[in-house]
UniProtKB/TrEMBL annotation:
One Pfam family in the UniProt entry: CBM_21
Name of this protein: Carbohydrate binding module family 25 domain-containing protein
Sorted UniProt keywords: Signal
Signal sequence coordinates: 1-22
Organism this protein belongs to: Vallitalea longa
Domain annotation Carbohydrate binding module family: ranges: 30-126
Length: 128
């Protein structure tokens, strides 16, 4: 009877420690990551564009959103004037952000979609 009790006690201890280990190593909730999406351009808002809009979704275009991108100005390493647009996107770490750009013109009207020649753009959200 002593052997049976010892074996049962040892089994209970192993089961408890196994469940504690499983809980300890359980996957934590997805960590949010902020990714900066940049659109390099020669379009200045006052001269050509009304807006550049980031059109994006996550992991196969789920939860699609449109965000007006902020226009930035500066100079590159060769002192050439440049214009770019940027927006921050928040996603879970390792999610794929699918996106394209919608450019709305203020001269001559109309608009243009830059969707990487039909392939869209993609980036994996990573915490650096």
């Amino acid at each position: 009877m002593k052997k049976v009790t010892s074996i049962m006690f040892l089994s209970v201890i192993l089961l408890l420690s196994g469940s504690l280990s499983a809980n300890t190593f359980a996957k934590s909730p997805d960590e949010k990551v902020t990714c900066k999406i940049v659109y390099e351009s020669w379009y200045e808002p006052s001269l050509y564009t009304e807006a550049v809009i980031l059109h994006y979704g996550v992991d196969g275009w789920d939860d699609v959103k449109d965000v007006t991108m902020a226009c930035k100005y500066g100079f590159d390493e060769n002192h050439n004037y440049k214009v770019w647009y940027e927006a921050d996107v928040e996603a879970n770490e390792n999610d794929t952000i699918d996106y394209c750009f919608h450019i709305k013109y203020n001269r001559g009207g109309g608009d243009y979609w830059d969707n990487n020649e039909g392939k869209d753009y993609h980036i994996v959200a990573q915490n650096n």
